[in-house]
């Protein structure tokens, strides 16, 4: 998820998404102008016995000050929650690419997600543990703050409640939220990782529909957005794990085309067009007079050249160099409590390199065998 980098903590870029920049003033307005001040003051008084002077809290511009500080404090709490996930992940040697704050909370983008159930469990509970700790600290701070400091006292109480609510909500087994990842980790103790993921994803989809229905009937747009996020993230991760299972143990060499169609660099585009019609291959390897690869020429490049130049232009002018068209490592960034994509690509297994092969069916990585023949590493995804 894109955003503006505003800071770095432990080397992790902290980003703010545009949606948060729009939502934060709205949240501050809702806290300061509605009945939330009275609501939270009543909850705190009933739960802790700490009283608040409502006249002081509602005097002048004080409600707006409370609204701004409370809204910012809430998302600072979310940031600390995500840092809890990040700290636990880094303890296991997992790189954190970024933490992004957006309208629905925060996303810690982990470069990889562990398949070991115990590691995923500890990473998942680390965030809620931080929220619980923040709630306790804020509650103690509220109790110790003198009544004369009504605004700081109220803000500490507000953050105590919101952090507890954040913890409880995140621990719902709505995969891929924290509770859903805890649920998958517990399932993975006695089941294959893929089976555990599919079961957790189904539960997540059920919660998504429940949130969506409640959001529609109560006119809560945030719940509707959350339902959409949970549904899309759960189904995406389930499909990704299924793809990993299907490709597990298969090397790129097992699926490559050993005798790719070739064309001389001196072949005219007109002649190449006839060859395209005859062999029906979207990608051809361009070779020199000695058979050494120069690059690849694709159906797309043929169409561009056909419309822009004379039919007797040479394929040598139209090909892309081997270096430019060789698939490099395909980076994918699974997000904790967001939709993980496939794991980062490695060169030896199709489980991790499938993105590079399927992302663009016309991308090839030519190489020479010991006998000097040219081979393609990936064939079209549709083949």
From TrEMBL:
<feature type="transmembrane region" description="Helical">
    <location>
        <begin position="154"/>
        <end position="175"/>
    </location>
</feature>
<keyword id="KW-0129">CBS domain</keyword>
<keyword id="KW-0472">Membrane</keyword>
<keyword id="KW-0862">Zinc</keyword>
<dbReference type="InterPro" id="IPR008915">
    <property type="entry name" value="Peptidase_M50"/>
</dbReference>
<feature type="binding site">
    <location>
        <position position="85"/>
    </location>
    <ligand>
        <name>Zn(2+)</name>
    </ligand>
</feature>
<feature type="domain" description="CBS">
    <location>
        <begin position="256"/>
        <end position="314"/>
    </location>
</feature>
<dbReference type="GO" id="GO:0046872">
    <property type="term" value="F:metal ion binding"/>
</dbReference>
<keyword id="KW-0677">Repeat</keyword>
<feature type="transmembrane region" description="Helical">
    <location>
        <begin position="199"/>
        <end position="231"/>
    </location>
</feature>
<dbReference type="GO" id="GO:0008237">
    <property type="term" value="F:metallopeptidase activity"/>
</dbReference>
<feature type="transmembrane region" description="Helical">
    <location>
        <begin position="121"/>
        <end position="142"/>
    </location>
</feature>
<dbReference type="Pfam" id="PF02163">
    <property type="entry name" value="Peptidase_M50"/>
</dbReference>
<dbReference type="InterPro" id="IPR000644">
    <property type="entry name" value="CBS_dom"/>
</dbReference>
<keyword id="KW-0479">Metal-binding</keyword>
<feature type="binding site">
    <location>
        <position position="178"/>
    </location>
    <ligand>
        <name>Zn(2+)</name>
    </ligand>
</feature>
<comment type="similarity">
    <text>Belongs to the peptidase M50B family.</text>
</comment>
<keyword id="KW-1133">Transmembrane helix</keyword>
<feature type="transmembrane region" description="Helical">
    <location>
        <begin position="64"/>
        <end position="83"/>
    </location>
</feature>
<keyword id="KW-1003">Cell membrane</keyword>
<feature type="binding site">
    <location>
        <position position="81"/>
    </location>
    <ligand>
        <name>Zn(2+)</name>
    </ligand>
</feature>
<feature type="transmembrane region" description="Helical">
    <location>
        <begin position="12"/>
        <end position="31"/>
    </location>
</feature>
<dbReference type="GO" id="GO:0006508">
    <property type="term" value="P:proteolysis"/>
</dbReference>
<keyword id="KW-0378">Hydrolase</keyword>
<keyword id="KW-0812">Transmembrane</keyword>
<dbReference type="InterPro" id="IPR046342">
    <property type="entry name" value="CBS_dom_sf"/>
</dbReference>
<feature type="active site">
    <location>
        <position position="82"/>
    </location>
</feature>
<dbReference type="InterPro" id="IPR016483">
    <property type="entry name" value="UCP006404_Pept_M50_CBS"/>
</dbReference>
<feature type="compositionally biased region" description="Basic residues">
    <location>
        <begin position="313"/>
        <end position="322"/>
    </location>
</feature>
<dbReference type="Pfam" id="PF00571">
    <property type="entry name" value="CBS"/>
</dbReference>
<feature type="region of interest" description="Disordered">
    <location>
        <begin position="308"/>
        <end position="383"/>
    </location>
</feature>
<keyword id="KW-0482">Metalloprotease</keyword>
<feature type="compositionally biased region" description="Low complexity">
    <location>
        <begin position="323"/>
        <end position="371"/>
    </location>
</feature>
<feature type="compositionally biased region" description="Basic residues">
    <location>
        <begin position="374"/>
        <end position="383"/>
    </location>
</feature>
<dbReference type="GO" id="GO:0005886">
    <property type="term" value="C:plasma membrane"/>
</dbReference>
<protein>
    <recommendedName>
        <fullName>Zinc metalloprotease</fullName>
    </recommendedName>
</protein>
<keyword id="KW-0645">Protease</keyword>
